[in-house]
Write a structure and sequence with these properties.
Length: 266
């Protein structure tokens, strides 16, 4: 968090002399006036607006009046987006009224409030969650969270995003999801009740949806069923086949024959 005037400039000469730097800087302007320039784009962010900049390229970031801002620094490789997408997002105003941006702003504000109380490991996990939420903002995906953007809604959406981004992790189970977000399993069940499901059912549904999409895509036709199961975090093939059949009324192989075959015929 930064209070007061701020000026950060990186010239072409500084870029040429410095070693390769993959740091990114994301800033939310809570109050005051400022401007950011990069990649021949210029933005004057209003209160609540988020702006992204990449440190390895020439940029200028200035707040011209006394103001308050939240800043997040992270490595470029930790952001799960293509290089072109990241560069295109720099020095562009991110709408503070957008639901995804509201979720991120609420989370970062709360994170800075409690940061001193967290362990080093907890701060690392919290930072990763913030980067995942930023990726959601950059993809312009509105979070489907009912009842506003209170702390419980933010935490619930963080967990849902984490599940979708880590489906291939076989260690991601209900207890592990709770541990990574520093809540009890009991509280996590209470949060998922808000959207009419349980953590285990949500995790299973997301894995099966991802598997269904892969089985329907001719690009993955060479992958065996066991490889697709592993790609969505399910190690045991029989467990995967039983769950898939319960969900979709057919086996993974049967689904693939029907859908990939229909696509090839069309």
């Amino acid at each position: 968090m930064h209070l007061g005037q701020m000026s950060a400039v990186r010239t072409d000469r500084m870029v040429a002399r410095a070693p390769a730097d993959d740091l990114m800087l994301f800033c939310i302007y809570l109050d005051g006036q400022g401007r950011v320039r990069q990649h021949d784009r210029f933005v004057e962010p209003a209160a609540g607006t988020g702006v992204l900049a990449e440190v390895r390229s020439r940029y200028e970031a200035v707040t011209s009046t006394e103001g308050l801002s939240l800043s997040l620094r992270f490595s470029r490789e930790s952001l799960p987006l293509r290089t072109a997408e990241i560069t295109e997002a720099c020095a562009r105003s991110m709408d503070p009224a957008a639901p995804a941006m509201q979720v991120l702003s609420g989370y970062l504000g709360r994170l800075f409030d409690v940061a001193d109380e967290l362990t080093a490991g907890q701060r690392l996990d919290a930072g990763r969650a913030a980067i995942e939420l930023l990726a959601m903002v950059l993809r312009d995906v509105p979070p489907a969270v009912p009842d506003g953007n209170g702390p419980d809604d933010v935490l619930l959406e963080m967990m849902r995003v984490h599940v979708r981004e880590h489906l291939a992790d076989p260690h991601l189970r209900v207890e592990e999801l709770a541990r990574r977000h520093h809540v009890s399993v009991r509280r996590m069940y209470s949060l998922f009740e808000r959207i009419g499901t349980t953590p285990g059912a949500f995790l299973r549904e997301q894995r099966l949806l991802a598997a269904q999409a892969m089985l329907s895509d001719p690009r993955y036709a060479r992958l065996g069923t066991s490889s697709i199961a592993a790609a969505v975090g399910i190690r045991d093939l029989s467990t995967f086949e039983r769950a898939f059949r319960r969900q979709y009324g057919t086996t993974p192989a049967g689904w693939r024959r029907e859908h990939v075959g229909a696509a090839n015929e069309g």
